[in-house]
Amino acid sequence: MNDANKDVIERLKAFPTGTLCNADPKARAMDAAIRQLYPEAKVAGYAATAKVGYGQNGGIHRAAHKIQPGEVLVVDAEGSRDFGHFGDLLATCCQTRGAIGVVIDGSVRDTVELKKMKFPVFATGTNPTRASRSETGEIDIEVKVGGTSVRPGDIIVGDEDGVIVIPVDIAERLYQAAVEVDSKEEEMRAQILKGSTTFELFGMS
Q: Are 100 and 17 in contact (CB under 8 A)?
């Protein structure tokens, strides 16, 4: 990731996901079932993708082997909560290679260790059951995670409110729009504190 790309990621990360969604409808939110594993988890980076079958995580191992600094591993596990597809060893591998988080449409395990590592994880839940590595899965393909299509290189931003997907070609435009949204909301907040209501400010009267 070059300096220019890193800069836009850091600028987007400064905004809540809600503000980014307000800024452009092309910023698409994943299903609310995909949540932070721990409250401090926040992530913003480029997607590296993997898809695994039921009870499998071989594709996650393959993706972790190839992942690049600044990338977020995004995994289509078909929403399965029957296995812990991702745990502390995979997180250690990802973190050592410079990855900055994982988003998985499925369950994870080793929660205590993952929290201690401060490795940002967003998942549908937890399950201690081990997944199998007997299938190699698929990597570097378009996947569907939390009902949302994700392509390699898309921008992923996750915080307390959830995870959103931003097409890379709108990143700069979305950032500028987010600045405007944030400024407008601050102005509205000031008016509300002076006695106006949202009903009035949004022109609903």
A: no
